[in-house]
Design brief:
The protein is mainly alpha-helical. The chain has 2 helices and no strands. Helices cover 87% and strands 0% of the residues. The longest helix is centred in the first third of the chain and has 83 residues, at 2-84.
């Protein structure tokens, strides 16, 4: 009978060690997956920052195009007025030029505002993505810690069960009283 109890105790010990190892591996795998997701989110955040910079550069190019179009329009107007014998810089010619400049300035302001909004939106997205990555890294650390604690708890409970099953041990965990033969 003592041999059967010893075998049961050994099997229980092996099961405890296996459960502990499995719990540690599962926690480690989950934490590793979370860290990988966090790394992907960090890359996505960097990409969003680059998109914001691209929006700003496109906005600057649009502003340059608008300025260039303004100068071409003013040059065309001046050429037509000169060809018609109109004095440039006064009267109707000056009024038309001022209106053209005002319209170009209005377009530039609209472009500038739209660019700022689009870039800020991209940066906000990048910041939010970066925050999600940080939270996921924290979750990974917590998962690893919780897994280690859970594995230790499983091991301790299993060790107590093995101790209770070991031949010669009482249910209280201490040595069974020996009788003299």
């Amino acid at each position: 009978m003592a041999e059967l109890a010893t075998i049961a105790a050994v099997v229980s010990a092996v099961g405890t060690v296996a459960s502990t190892g499995l719990a540690l591996m599962q926690a480690s795998a989950q934490a590793s997956a979370q860290r990988s997701q966090a790394a992907m989110l960090e890359l996505q955040s960097r990409q969003q920052e680059l998109e914001a910079r691209g929006v700003e550069l496109r906005g600057q190019n649009e502003a340059l195009d608008t300025r260039e179009a303004l100068f071409r329009t003013l040059a065309t107007q001046n050429a037509r007025y000169s060809a018609a014998g109109v004095v440039i810089g006064e009267g109707t010619a000056e009024t038309v030029a001022e209106r053209t400049r005002a319209e170009a300035d209005r377009q530039l302001e609209i472009q500038r505002t739209n660019t700022e909004i689009a870039a800020a939106s991209a940066r906000l997205g990048a910041g939010m993505t970066s925050q999600r990555a940080l939270l996921l890294r924290d979750d990974a650390s917590a998962t690893a810690t919780a897994g280690a604690l859970g594995a230790f708890s499983t091991f301790a409970q299993g060790a107590m069960r093995v101790a209770d099953r070991w031949p010669g041990q009482s249910k209280s965990g201490g040595a069974a009283p020996r009788t003299s033969s």
